[in-house]
Amino acid sequence: MASERVALASYDIPEQHIDKRSWESIEQSFASLCVILANFSGIVLARVLSTRPNPNICYLVEFALIVVPTVLFVTVASSYSVHFVALMMVLLLLYLLRARPLSRAKSRAQFQLGTRPFVLTLMRSMTHLITAICILAIDFASFHRPYRKSRLFGAQLMDTGIGLFVVTMGLVSRRPRNCADLRRSIWRSSLPLILLGIARVVAILIVGYGQDEHEYGRHLNAFFTLGLTKFFGSLFCFLPRNDTHLLPLGLGLLVCHQLALTLGGISEYVMNEDLPRSTFVSANREGLFSLPGFVAIYLLSICLSRWLVSKTSLSYNEIVGKLRSLLIISVLCWLLMAGSAYAVGIARVTCNLGYVSWMMFLITSMLCLSIFIFHLVIDDDNETLGDIESLEKSPLIATGSGNAKDRGDLLVICNSLNMNGLVFFLLANILTGGVNIFLEPEYRSDPASVFILLAYMLVVTSVAHLLYKTGIRIA
Questions:
Q1: What pLDDT digit, counting tens, does each position of 450-466 carry?
Q2: Which residue windows are coiled coil (predicted)?
Q3: Which of 49, 281, 324, 419 is 20 to 30 Å from the Cα of 411, by its Cα?
């Protein structure tokens, strides 16, 4: 019975059937965006207010400004996320009017994005943080019900998890140039994820922990989806001769996938709960038939990343041009998402056109906002944010007296999660299972649930921070 409660609690199951063409998905997408923006606002506040060179103090300040509000906004303070985002927008507008940072930005000779821009690290860390919070918070009664995964169609907050993981995986990946690159991508990235998927299946069977088969299927899980997406995505990336060909390849795959879902009857096959799961394919139809959509997301994300870093040093006019292009792409993706919500719906379980366009809207809009904030507004003269790869490979050294370089190293939690994101996510999954087995979260009061969530996040982020501070990079 406990496993059944866990499985059913993971989804927002409506009392009546909701037409996939309902505009409710658009409203849900905006509610999800508000939580993401609230998390982003905490990062901006931490970047502005945390000016101490001591990494431990920076960690505590960031935890208070980033993690604590996000925990509250998905539980007891869910109705205030919109107000918080609105307040931050007003403060940003006042700052733009009074400090005129854009005037100073115009006088700068160049802006250093680097080969691995800071904003890509930011997207990865935000995805890890929000997902880690939600996978445990959902088991508490205090979790905001509308944020739960959609069983069929919908655009809830937890529907973003696997999609944004694939997006960020693509953003930091490169197209394999030769067979050696392809083998390296498969052996070092794809195979470990698939092995983790197998390990999770074995662990679930041993412990008896509940898994809802309507998410990825009876045997598959998120690790399989990520590993297989990386595998097939690497194979597809090996076909074109340059990065620009990834765009038509990804779009073509997406169109073929949607045609198969709609005209081939695959969407109805996947979502029909009355069909038996008698074979491996039918038992895992959600995980298997959504793969083409996730591979399309992966290809489009690589293309977006390669375009973003096509020139590492930009003038003011060039960076404004990048922002304008990102804004246009974001608007186009939103229009496509809105049209898809009415025509074919937004479905994570099939990763259809609506879902892919939603993911691309989220990532392009957040990249546009991040570049604007961190490179034009609050980043006067900082080149350390341009290339984060050096920060990934070395511990945070508490030196200096608060100059621009030191301030650039202050996003300790973000850099820690980027350095050992897989370790962080695995530890979060293990602790989530432990809390569900030993603490019975469904019976906890609101104050107790918030306390447990904060303690859980303190443990997982502290481990990541300790590894980062000591320069240990595992995965």
A1: 999 999 999 999 999 99
A2: none
A3: 324
